[in-house]
Amino acid sequence: MGEFDLIRQYFQPLAGSAMTDQLVLGPGDDCAIQRIPAGRDLVFSVDTLVEGVHFPLNYSSRYLGWRALAVAASDLAAMGAKPVCFTLALTLPEANPDWLSGFAESLSKASSAFGMALAGGDTTRGALTISIQVHGTVAEGAAIQRSGARPGDLICVTGPLGAAGAALAFLEDPKPGPLARAMLVRYHSPEPRLELGQQLVGKASAAIDISDGLLADLQHILEASSVGAELQAGTIPMMPELVQLHGDQSLNLALTAGDDYELCVTIAPEVLKRLAPDIQAQLAVVGQVVKTPGLSLIGADLTDMPPGFDHFGRLV
Amino acid sequence: MGEFDLIRQYFQPLAGSAMTDQLVLGPGDDCAIQRIPAGRDLVFSVDTLVEGVHFPLNYSSRYLGWRALAVAASDLAAMGAKPVCFTLALTLPEANPDWLSGFAESLSKASSAFGMALAGGDTTRGALTISIQVHGTVAEGAAIQRSGARPGDLICVTGPLGAAGAALAFLEDPKPGPLARAMLVRYHSPEPRLELGQQLVGKASAAIDISDGLLADLQHILEASSVGAELQAGTIPMMPELVQLHGDQSLNLALTAGDDYELCVTIAPEVLKRLAPDIQAQLAVVGQVVKTPGLSLIGADLTDMPPGFDHFGRLV
Question: Per residue of chain B (316 residues), what is the pLDDT tens digit?
């Protein structure tokens, strides 16, 4: 069996593994075909993970497949899109069956969990590089964008921050303890907030997925919306295990580490109040949008802040 | 200016450089948004080019941008799709302004020539790898697939074959002669048959773009359609410069070299006859689809054939 037959063998099952009612034609022709329902927009995003840059050398392929699709799908969550399918551009140094079966299995789990079928792809030889493009749909004109935040909106995050960043220190630990393991789960198996994103369509005024850290990503919303923000340091949600591990430094990680793939959303207070309780329960209010440009952090000990903050706790 | 600002500077102009009426939201948010017109299907394909595998080390970025988009867009041509937009996942060892400006300029020319706007992308650090996903649309259910070839259909190609393959020998030639230059143009600047592909919707029974050589790619049509083919060696179109350079070996290149990005299409004789003369003029008949599986080559000197042929000139 040739190496590309081998690859096809591993990935072909993913083409039929999930919801495919919109996928008119999957892998195997020059192109794939997707039929978008009337009144829906196609929403799409591509993310690349490079070995040694986005994940360590020899990172287990049994985590990588899930992680790669989750990272990409998280962008759909931020737009409020319903996931449909994805393409995989996989560049590999060799067709190692162990590696491939682990990767395909892990990707397959994510594909089923997120309801996304493999629509097509390209497999090439080279340094390990994974580009995944995700496709979703959203009601015409209803996608949540970064530019809609308005002064007075509350700033919310959808889960605890910083743990995945803290996990980086343990990725090559052969026997991580229980605290480390709690961090590692958040790194290996991020859960894109796909359902919550869809529930926030027409409610949230802006959203972004936190891939580079809350401060950096919130900054993108502020720029796109021409507004500022005040964050309340004491309200940033963190896992107790993170605080046990890092004490005073936990907040740094929660503000600047990016690998959790939670969402940061802005929403008017009266809209938040009217959300169903189970949706409200998934949103931690961490600050407020203000008219004056800039990002202030209230209540943090400045000596703990990462470089890039001025003496007013303001990101410069 | 940071390296990613630099990259944005070079690529942002491509977002508005071409037809964008379907592109509701381009680069800069978590996702891009495309609105597919009613009654059209989304057609998409991803292609990866890796330095040292798909193009030589130090290959000029002034050709690479065009070539990368052309190679990807050629898959849209094979489905008969109208091109709309593309995403670029670009992995680069460094942000070299010379390289980037050459690449962006060359990509921009292709983007305008093919009518495709940059919809989004991801830029990462690593070994030079370019993944481009192209999006087009076609009337619902009308995409030309590989599986529609029927016995009696004529097999056509859309232009001369083999020249881009012959160019490989000259890619690092500092002073190529006129014959070599004629080959090099075909390698550097492939012209995906986008218009012709659209004109063949509802006419061609099957199509594929020739990326791996006529024999290999026709084989994909035969398998998908459960048919066989007889090719007439004497009818394979070749540039006179190729024949001057390679004499008896030209046919080998024309049959097995893949870099020209012409289309191979099958079409019923009575349908071909009724096509407008200017469309017929772009189709060279090179053989016929037959019922018996297998691919026969008629009229070639077998000693000239590449390995993989049996003594009957039949691909084994």
Answer: 566 677 778 888 888 754 567 999 999 899 999 999 999 999 999 999 999 999 999 899 999 999 999 999 999 999 999 999 999 999 999 989 999 999 999 999 999 999 999 999 999 999 999 999 999 999 999 999 999 999 999 999 999 999 999 999 999 999 999 999 999 999 999 999 999 999 999 999 999 999 999 999 999 999 999 999 999 999 999 999 999 999 988 999 999 988 999 999 999 999 999 999 999 999 999 999 999 999 999 998 645 555 444 434 444 3
Decide if B35 and A78 are in contact by the 8 Å CB cutoff.
Answer: no
Which 3-state string (H, E, C) describes B71-110?
HHHHHHHHHCCEEEEEEEEEEECCCCHHHHHHHHHHHHHH
Interchain contact, A33 vs B136, CB within 8 Å: no
Residue A8 · residue A99 · CB < 8 Å = no
Based on its alpha-carbon atoms, the radius of gyration of chain B, rounded to whole angstroms, reads 20
A25: left (phi over 0), alpha (psi -120 to 50) or beta: beta
Select the residue from B29, B49, B90, B210 to test the A interface by mutation, using most A Cβ atoms within 10 A. B29
Task: Please say whether the structural domain B3-139 has been given the CATH code 3.30.1330.10.
Answer: yes
Contact B206, B144 (CB under 8 A): yes
Topology adopted by domain A146-304: Phosphoribosyl-aminoimidazole Synthetase; Chain A, domain 2 (3.90.650)
> How close A248 comes to chain B (CA, Å)?
31
Is A122 within 8 Å of B136 when comparing Cβ atoms? no
- Give the model confidence (pLDDT) of A32-73 as tens digits: 999 999 999 999 999 999 999 999 998 999 999 999 999 999
Check if A3-139 and A146-304 are the same fold. no
A34 and B45: CB-CB below 8 Å? no
Look at strands A206-209 and A263-267 and give their pairing: antiparallel
pTM: 0.93
Token digits of residue B290: 């037959």
Residues facing A133 on adjacent strands: A46, A87
| Nearest chain B Cα distance for residue A89, angstroms | 7
Is the Cβ–Cβ distance between A5 and A99 less than 8 Å? Answer: no
- Whether B252 and B263 have beta carbons less than 8 Å apart is answered as no
Distance CA A1, CA A134 (A): 30
* Option in B32, B47, B91 nearest A44 (CB): B32
Domain ranges of chain A: 3-139, 146-304
Contact (CB, 8 A) for A104 and A63? no
DSSP structure class, residue B81:
P
Q: Are strands A117-125 and B284-290 parallel, antiparallel or unpaired?
A: unpaired
B5 touches chain A (CB under 8 A): no
